[in-house]
């Protein structure tokens, strides 16, 4: 008998179900913005949750990923003991054209 995962699969919200206020709220937090920026510069499904250098513990990091999933920005899946992530850029771009490009600009770009 194969062992099952001890945690439930994450629930995802499609960007089509997200308001612009929810999206902006998710992106307003500095930790979540860091996560999104790092995911934008990474190959899809290559970053596990523990691979991000952010100043929060595991529980807070889980919360931040839940907010990003709820805003339609991030998709996660389990690969063995790791949960890996991808930025839902094409789907999010279709819902909010140009928003991620604005958000992902370098902090010193005059945004």
Describe this structure in words.
The protein has about 110 residues and is an alpha+beta fold. The protein contains five helices and three strands, in the order ααβαββαα. The protein has helices at about 20-30, 30-40, 60-70, 90-95, 100-105; strands at about 45-50, 75-80, 80-85. Strands 1-3-2 form a three-stranded antiparallel β-sheet. The radius of gyration is 14 Å and the shape is globular. The mean pLDDT is about 90.
Determine the structural class based on helices, strands and strand pairing.
Answer: alpha+beta
Count of individual helical segments: 5
Radius of gyration: 14 Å
The order of strands across the largest sheet is 1-3-2
Element layout with pairings:
Elements: H1 20-28, H2 30-40, E1 47-48, H3 58-70, E2 74-79, E3 82-87, H4 89-95, H5 99-104
Antiparallel strand pairs: 1-3, 2-3
Helix pairs in contact: 1-3, 2-3
Identify the notable features of this structure and list them briefly.
alpha+beta; 5 helices; 111 residues; 3-stranded antiparallel beta sheet; globular; single chain
Q: Can you give me a brief rundown of this structure?
A:
The protein has helices spanning 20-28, 30-40, 58-70, 89-95, 99-104, and strands at 47-48, 74-79, 82-87. It is an alpha+beta fold and 111 residues long.
């Amino acid at each position: 008998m194969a062992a099952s995962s001890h945690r439930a699969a994450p629930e995802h919200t499609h960007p089509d179900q997200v308001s612009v206020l929810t999206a902006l709220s998710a992106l307003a937090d500095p930790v979540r913005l860091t996560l999104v920026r790092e995911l934008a510069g990474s190959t899809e499904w290559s970053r596990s949750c523990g691979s991000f250098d952010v100043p929060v513990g595991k529980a807070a990091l889980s919360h931040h990923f839940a907010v990003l999933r709820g805003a339609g920005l991030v998709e996660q899946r389990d690969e063995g003991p790791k949960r890996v992530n991808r930025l839902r850029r094409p789907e999010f771009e279709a819902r909010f054209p140009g928003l991620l490009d604005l958000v992902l600009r370098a902090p010193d770009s005059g945004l």
